[in-house]
Amino acid sequence: MPDRTDTRPPPRTELDELRASDRIFHALLDNAPILISTKDLQGNITMANRHFEILDGYNAATFVGSNVFELFPREIAEQLWRNDRIAALERRAIHEEESVYHRDKTLHTYMTVKFPLLDDEGQVYATCAVSTDITDAKAAQADSVTDELTGLKNRRYLNIRFSEEQKRARRDQRLLTLLLIDVDRFKEYNDSHGHPQGDQVLKAVADAMRQALSRPGDLSFRIGGDEFACLFASNSADESAALAEQIRADLAARLIPHQGNPPCGHVTLSLGLAFVAPDATLSQQEIYEQADQALYRAKHQGRNTVSR
Ligand SMILES: Nc1nc2c(ncn2[C@@H]2O[C@H](COP(=O)(O)OP(=O)(O)OP(=O)(O)O)[C@@H](O)[C@H]2O)c(=O)[nH]1
């Protein structure tokens, strides 16, 4: 006979505990603003949370059970599937950026972590993917290192990249070059042509830099008002100087009138080069000072010159 005087709730059974944790698990899946899915080892989706509704072409009736190769264009499916395979075969978590279209046709970048799911025997039977939308964060990061006027990277980004580029050049046994560029008598140009026209000159400088330094790995910056910098690897000082000369000649050939810049009367640049040999250890400050001294010499040699 049950004791009717005992008003305490009945003890929770293992099944009660399981149901409670299942409810929490499903609430999490349904409300998390991230993509969570699992795939079997053939690439068939076995579970996908509600947030998948945000994806272009998503169909709730067919998504679970479909294969990645049926759901996505071939090259996207191959990339997605490759990461699942690596996670399963190497039994480790893979972190990758992936791009997918949302229902509103905007392209979004996700940071995805994929990891293997193990059964009771410790065998991998599926992979799980958890993807977070990082589109806004990436845009904000890009804005914080980009010069608004010219679209070049800013000084902050030069500081971030310098040691990384130094390591890369050393590994490739190449010469790291820092090139500093300054518009000649730009104050006078602004004074006689106005600030908005001056801005057009700065954009033209950025354009000349982009024309000359278009190889992957070449980096161009606007580091101050009329000061620009390039950071790139080359095989010799002469090769670097030839690129600097190309920028100087390009801008001079645009013949932008500037009466206050004798003797030529058009906008010109002064450029200073400094190099770090693969076996040298120079700090960013030291190489910057060397390039700045070379720029100073270019100014004193009559401007419109490359100096090293
Ligand atoms: N139009 C424009 N001018 C800027 C901007 N930022 C800085 N400047 C101007 O750039 C000029 C830089 O001049 P200075 O550094 O004094 O040198 P300079 O006249 O170029 O003379 P040298 O370098 O000796 O040839 C200043 O007049 C600044 O006001 C900008 O974003 N747009």
From TrEMBL:
One MF term in the entry's GO annotations: diguanylate cyclase activity
Entry EC number(s): 2.7.7.65
Entry GO CC: plasma membrane
An individual GO BP term: negative regulation of bacterial-type flagellum-dependent cell motility
Residues in GGDEF domain copies: 174-308
Organism superkingdom: Bacteria
PANTHER family per the UniProt record, alphabetical: DIGUANYLATE CYCLASE DGCM-RELATED, REGULATORY COMPONENTS OF SENSORY TRANSDUCTION SYSTEM
Source organism: Duganella violaceipulchra
Domain PAS as annotated: residue spans: 21-75
UniProt cross-references to Pfam families, sorted A to Z: GGDEF, PAS_4
Enzyme class: transferase
Protein name: diguanylate cyclase
